[in-house]
Write a structure and sequence with these properties.
The protein contains 1 helix and no strands. The protein has one helix spanning 3-42. The radius of gyration is 24 Å and the shape is rod-shaped.
Length: 59
C-alpha cells in the first residue's frame, strides 16, 4: 500500500469518528427533548405552580 493510500484511509477513519461523535450528541439531545415533552404532558416536569394543571371548563 502506498503512502497516499494510507494517509487517505487514516483521514477517512478520523472523519468517521468525528461523524459518530456528532451523531451521538444529536441523538442524546433528541432523547432529552422527548423526555421533557413527555414529562410536561404527564405533569411531572418542574414547572411553576398552576402550569399544566387541570382546567375547570364546566364553569
Amino acid at each position: 500500500m502506498d503512502m497516499m493510500a494510507m494517509v487517505s484511509s487514516m483521514m477517512a477513519m478520523k472523519a468517521a469518528g468525528t461523524q459518530q461523535q456528532i451523531q451521538t450528541s444529536i441523538i442524546k439531545q433528541n432523547a432529552d427533548a422527548e423526555k421533557a415533552a413527555v414529562q410536561t404532558l404527564l405533569g411531572t416536569a418542574n414547572l411553576a405552580p398552576g402550569v399544566g394543571g387541570n382546567v375547570n371548563i364546566a364553569a
